[in-house]
Give the backbone structure.
Amino acid sequence: GAVVSQHPSRVICKSGTSVKIECRSLDFQATTMFWYRQFPKKSLMLMATSNEGSKATYEQGVEKDKFLINHASLTLSTLTVTSAHPEDSSFYICSARRQLNTGELFFGEGSRLTVL
Amino acid sequence: KQEVTQIPAALSVPEGENLVLNCSFTDSAIYNLQWFRQDPGKGLTSLLLIQSSQREQTSGRLNASLDKSSGRSTLYIAASQPGDSATYLCAVDGDKLIFGTGTRLQVFP
């Protein structure tokens, strides 16, 4: 089956630093990738939609200058949390769509970010 | 704006019971609906995908139905086992995948 790799799975950083999370579709081309954030015991909240070769579309309330998303190729999207603060600590999950619109979505294993 | 709600929020049952988890959504203009399982601290495992033109999908002890017109989907788990304990999420795909609020299931021996 289709595989999406997310790296790193866990990261701890100091306040004020930036952290980059990568999301790769290993065996298919993903024209669209999505980034989600999950707080403890809560459901996944869509942060942004990442389209290859164009700017990401952010959901309301998500700061695009804080959560930088780059989708430079059909197999890689990155989420950079800039100037991280403790409240940014969360579980971040990416997903990739194999085909346009009706294609099934596949998810990475998630990245747990802890900001000290 | 699509809103996805799951009922119940939590469920605790003895092993062997048949279960029904409910998912409702407000906008019926969807491509498909997926059911996922999430173990504590882990990522998502896709269980079933139902295209908008389909009414149900089955995989082993799992059966998911979709009634797009009424904005509802159910996940039926037959003969539940302790290993089924997890959080179950439905997600509605209409350009963007929107997740439901989740049902935390505990199956005890």
